[in-house]
Write a structure and sequence with these properties.
4-stranded antiparallel beta sheet, mainly beta, 172 residues, 2 helices
Length: 172
């Protein structure tokens, strides 16, 4: 079976930036399992994987518009400190914010007395990324998986890079 929409695909992969630094990898970890065609992976990677079969390698370098988008200065904003009442926040922390676009990972850039400066860009926005890896498994999705739009089963860990984890009520 080939990688196609609504197939459940298992991948081993490594992501590197333009300097060749490894940003993410499944090496020595669980492979990534996802439902193809649902936008779980970045667009360029889904396109690259279309039609691949088990055991096939892939290697692709994606510009920001095929990956996590350009860096958008408008997503950097200062919000009143009281929004974080009772929360311990520090520079460099990331958390998932509820926004009009659903859940977005937000990084804290600066903590001042009156305000907190946050960055709503994906941590990899604006970067050219290289993905390489191998297709480990491809199977039909179950009806339940299609209904929920994501994979169930023993690997139901939060590998959800795009959506900042948490799905169907498993919030952290």
């Amino acid at each position: 079976m080939k990688v196609s929409d609504n197939a459940v695909v298992t991948l081993d992969f490594t992501v590197t930036n333009a300097d060749g630094e490894i940003l993410d990898s499944t090496e020595n970890k669980q492979p990534l399992q996802y439902l193809h065609g649902t936008g779980f992976l970045v667009t360029g990677l889904e396109t690259e994987l279309n039609g691949k079969v088990v055991g096939e390698d892939f290697e692709v370098t994606l510009s920001p518009d095929q990956a996590y988008g350009d860096y958008d200065e408008a997503l950097v904003q200062s919000v009143p400190g009281e929004l974080f009442d009772g929360m311990e926040v520090a520079e460099g922390d990331t958390f998932v914010a509820e926004t009009d676009d659903g859940h977005r990972p937000v990084t804290i850039l600066e903590v001042a007395e009156e305000y907190v400066k946050v960055d709503g860009n994906h941590p990899l926005a604006g970067m050219t990324l290289s993905f390489r890896g191998v297709v480990r498994e491809v199977r039909e999705a179950t009806e339940e998986e299609l209904a929920h739009g994501h994979v169930h089963g023993e690997h139901d860990h939060d590998h959800d890079h795009e959506h900042g984890g948490g799905c169907c009520g498993h919030h952290h």
